[in-house]
TrEMBL record:
Name of the protein: tRNA (guanine-N(1)-)-methyltransferase
Main localization of the protein described in the UniProt heading: cytoplasm
Native source species: Neolewinella agarilytica
Family: Belongs to the RNA methyltransferase TrmD family.
Keyword Magnesium included in the entry's annotation: no
Pfam families according to UniProt: tRNA_m1G_MT
Amino acid sequence: MHFDIITVLPDLLASPLSHSIMQRAKDKGLLTVEVHDLREFGLGKHRNVDDYQFGGGAGMVMRCEPLADMIDKLSKERTYDEIIYLTPDGERYTQGRANQLSLGENLLLICGHYKGIDQRLRDEYVTLEISIGDYVLSGGELAAAVLVDSIGRLLPGVLNDETSALTDSFQDNLLAPPVYTRPAEWRGRAVPPILLSGHTAAIEEWREEQAEQRTRDRRPDLFGEED
Ligand code: ADE
């Protein structure tokens, strides 16, 4: 799978995507990520990418021309499954959306800054607008990193234990059950005996009960929600 990411802060994306699972996915050739500096298409000698908003008001808006030029260039090289704009007023991101996007081949991610991008760019190019939560980041870069990570780890062959993505929180609209490792007792706290029993079916049943209980306690909104 290939990601193109357009940003005015390419450095911000270098680190989160070059560790651990993401780096391994890249090393195995399962995931490629190219970060594109929007200023390459910036206007004038200052390589401007933003301007004041029509109608007045605080905050700059990212202009049409640089972003359009960059999207046009990239679109000649690849056909995108989606052109995604990361924005707090987008659709709220879920595991279901990550699963669906992981089936594609090429995704283009646009990181906004300041007050965001000119509405005409959204109308012209963007096929999906995503928010990673009800809070405002200083830019879309961290949200883009969240998408690459959450989608990248779903690609076949990326995780060592192929089943482990399936048992994550949210895969079946339930939170994950508690997990334990050695020692079996620590500071007077014992691991639930069922986990040491060797009874696979009973352990599975216990995990399901725990997942349901945890979801009921912490996220009752997840029950009955479709993705
Ligand atoms: N850009 C700024 N805030 C954001 C958010 N919550 N989700 C996605 N992109 C953003």
